[in-house]
Design brief:
Elements: E1 18-22, H1 40-54, E2 58-62, H2 80-90, E3 94-96, H3 103-111, E4 117-119, H4 127-130, H5 134-141, E5 146-149, E6 171-173, H6 175-189, E7 195-199, H7 204-215, E8 220-223, H8 227-234, H9 249-261, E9 265-267, E10 272-275, E11 285-287, E12 295-299, H10 301-312, E13 316-320, H11 333-344, E14 348-351, H12 354-362, E15 371-372, H13 376-383, H14 389-392, E16 402-406, H15 414-426, E17 434-438, H16 441-451, E18 456-460, H17 477-482, E19 487-490, H18 493-498, H19 503-515, E20 519-524, H20 528-532, H21 536-548, E21 560-563, H22 577-602, E22 604-608, H23 613-620, E23 627-630, H24 637-645
Parallel strand pairs: 1-2, 1-5, 2-4, 3-4, 5-6, 7-8, 7-13, 8-9, 13-14, 14-15, 16-17, 16-23, 17-18, 18-19, 19-20, 20-21, 21-22, 22-23
Antiparallel strand pairs: 10-11, 10-12
Helix pairs in contact: 1-2, 7-9, 8-9, 10-11, 15-16, 19-21, 21-22, 23-24
The structure holds adenosine-5'-diphosphate (ADP) and magnesium ion (MG).
Length: 646
């Protein structure tokens, strides 16, 4: 699982540093009095807060609260009451900023002393937050030296504070996110068996992706809630007036067949609590059949027993979705029995989903469950097997190899690009490396949409050095960052050759790209004549110096260098792994010179130039080669996949 190994606050030097920490302080407020009715989320963030303060950090906290719609300050959405409650819980004064990236916030952030805490105003007073605006993210990042994400509840959203800031600062997780990925990640990737999933809730349609993902992993799948009636009807059973999604009957059949093929034991309720109407005081009748005029409201006693026994004999249980209309006390027993079985069982038990977590809490059983996820939507996306942007963008514990496919001036029609990308997406679960593709500008928007929350990232092949203006035919890094582009290739030898790009111009582009959080892949390399004249190192040294010398320290870890000997580009000639490693090792020493040893170790150095399936493995095995920039072979999905698996 990709998201297992992210750096945490334990992995960084904190003393004397400013840390900008995204927390989830989106607490329920009483409408009239403005009093916080449940401070669980504030308490949840305390371990990370205390740790940072104990280690001598200066802490800046940021969060959203409610839905103020990005139209500026509104008192009812102010985080001021949260600052007051946090002060009580933490037992020390909390500084509060009147704005988010304004003068007050910036001044207070700057004046912070060791051990002090500053809470910024509601992030969502700015529309740029949810729009994931790179300029807004940069302003937030400018107040600190390290970014910490501890807001699991918003980790499935790519917002400025959850994703964007990590493009500007070293980014690590807090303890809440660490626990979520450790427990849920492990359960999905490497579960104690038998592995059982229990799914319920109102609609099959909400949970299709969860079911599909879990069918690849679990031994038992137990269904409850209204969702069960769609499956029962698909099997030809009478379901009366139960909540059924008729347009999902075919899909339900398909899922049942899939389960059989994958040897997953698929359980549906054998009895029910039925009622004549959907109401709290409807009479609850136990029945194995659902007669005409009746609707299923909860799982019956036999089903409760079967499910409880299965839970007790499982190694891992993941539960999402109530078994019945638990909001009505007469139809809460099914849900309660599952919660109790989980609490009593000697298994790893995980509960995800907003309503499910609320149900467990209302039965007072939260403490008895191994892990109740703090994020409703986020935990669902996790169970769907998606990568969560707010976690994905944190630094990996162990540096991963990067495979970049440069399509050059090919496949520029959205349709052609889509075909190749779709072929890659089918195979994405086999990737062992980070993978990105760089299509022509014309295909970017389409391919970005298609990659969505997948592991494949989309890069640009070039950008201009200015933010905007009279530069006909050019594309600003700001446009690219705003559309969600992640990397930009700069100074490719073809651009140096055909468009006369100089080291100086490329340096300007690097700075421009960084000012919007893009990660430049800077290409360097010598020509055949230069190699034969013994000038390889001198050439590479000059190019690296132009790229890195005096670059702001905070930007250095985001620079990727790609060594592409010009004589090996598109010629079919490759540098031998030894030749490639020799130069990449030299580049590493140059990185150490400009960035220091620690940062240089985190920087990625790629090799490019006729990388093929046959030589990829050996190239990747070299100590100083952190991946490959692939040209021609990236246009063929099979060849590219073979390299990706090397
Ligand atoms: P979660 O938030 O845990 O993911 P869902 O939002 O999917 O859970 O589902 C919760 C809702 O499903 C509850 O409001 C509950 O009343 C409803 N529900 C469960 N069983 C039934 C049923 N038999 N008929 C109608 N609604 C149901
Ligand atoms: Mg819900």
């Amino acid at each position: 699982m990709e998201q297992l190994a992210k750096k945490t606050v334990r992995d960084i030097e904190i003393e004397g540093k400013r840390l900008l920490c995204r927390v989830d302080f989106n607490v329920p407020l009483d409408k009239k009095s403005g009093i916080i009715s449940d401070d669980k989320r504030i308490r949840g963030a305390l371990p990370t807060i205390r740790y940072i303060l104990d280690k001598g950090g200066k802490l800046i906290l940021m969060s959203h609260l409610g839905r103020p719609k990005g139209v500026g300050y509104q008192e009812e959405f102010s985080l001021k009451p949260v600052a007051e409650r946090l002060e009580e819980l933490l037992g020390r004064p909390i500084l509060f900023a009147q704005d988010v990236i304004g003068e007050d916030a910036k001044r207070k952030a700057k004046e912070l002393a060791t051990g002090q805490v500053l809470l910024l105003e509601n992030l969502r007073f700015h529309k740029e937050e949810e729009a994931n605006d790179p300029g807004f993210a940069r302003e937030l990042a400018s107040m600190a030296e390290i970014y910490v994400n501890d807001a699991f509840g918003t980790a499935h959203r790519a917002h400025a504070s959850t994703w964007g800031v990590a493009n500007f600062l070293p980014a690590v997780s807090g303890f809440l996110i660490e626990k979520e990925i450790a427990v849920m990640g492990k359960a999905l990737a490497n579960p104690e068996r038998p592995f059982t999933a229990i799914l319920g809730g109102a609609k099959v349609s909400d949970k299709i992706s969860v079911i599909e993902n879990l069918l690849n992993k679990v031994d038992n799948l137990l269904i409850g809630g209204a969702m069960a009636y769609t499956f029962l009807k698909a099997k030809g059973k009478e379901v009366g007036i139960s909540l059924v999604e008729d347009d999902k009957l075919a899909l339900a059949k398909e899922l049942l067949e899939k389960a059989e093929k994958k040897n997953v034991a698929f359980y549906l309720p054998e009895d029910h609590l039925v009622a004549k109407e959907f109401s709290a005081d409807a009479e609850a009748i136990v029945s194995e059949e659902i007669g005409a005029g009746f609707m299923g409201m909860d799982i019956g006693p036999k089903t409760q027993e079967t499910y409880s026994e299965l839970i007790a004999s499982s190694g891992t249980v993941v539960w999402n979705g109530p078994m019945g209309v638990f909001e009505f006390p007469s139809f809460a027993k099914g849900t309660e029995s599952i919660a109790k079985a989980l609490a009593e069982a000697d298994t790893i038990s995980i509960v995800g989903g907003g309503d499910s977590a609320a149900a467990v809490e209302s039965f007072g059983l939260t403490e008895k469950i191994t892990h109740v996820s703090t994020g409703g939507g986020a935990s669902l996306e996790f169970l769907e097997g998606k990568s969560l942007p707010g976690i994905d963008n944190l630094e990996d514990q162990v540096k991963k190899k990067l495979l970049a496919g440069n399509w050059k001036m090919n496949l520029g029609s959205p349709k052609a690009g889509r075909k190749l990308l779709e072929a890659l997406l089918v195979l994405e679960h086999e990737f062992v490396h980070d993978v990105l593709i760089a299509p022509p500008f014309t295909a970017l928007a389409d391919l970005l949409k298609l990659t969505g929350n997948s592991k494949i990232k989309v890069a640009a092949q070039n950008c201009h050095f200015a933010e905007k203006g009279a530069y006909t035919g050019e594309v600003s890094p700001q446009f690219l960052a705003a559309m969600g582009v992640y990397h930009v290739i700069l100074g490719h030898s073809e651009r140096r050759k055909f468009f006369a790009e100089t080291d100086e111009l490329i340096r300007q582009k690097i700075e421009a790209a960084r000012s919007f959080g893009l990660r430049p892949i800077v290409c360097i390399g010598e020509s055949l004549e230069e190699r034969e004249a013994g000038e390889t190192f001198a050439k590479v040294e000059k190019q690296v110096a132009a790229a890195l010398n005096n670059l702001p320290e905070k930007d250095l870890p985001f620079i990727i260098l790609a060594y592409e000997p010009i004589w090996a580009i598109g010629t079919g000639k490759t540098a031998t792994p030894e030749q490639a490693e020799e130069v990449c090792a030299f580049i590493r020493t140059l990185c150490e010179k400009y960035a220091g040893k620690e940062v240089a170790g985190r920087m990625k150095i790629l090799y490019g130039g006729s990388v093929q399936p046959v030589n990829a493995k050996e190239l990747f095995a070299q100590k100083n080669i952190d991946g490959a920039l692939v040209g021609g072979a990236s246009l063929d999905s099979e060849a590219f996949m073979a390299i990706a698996k090397a």
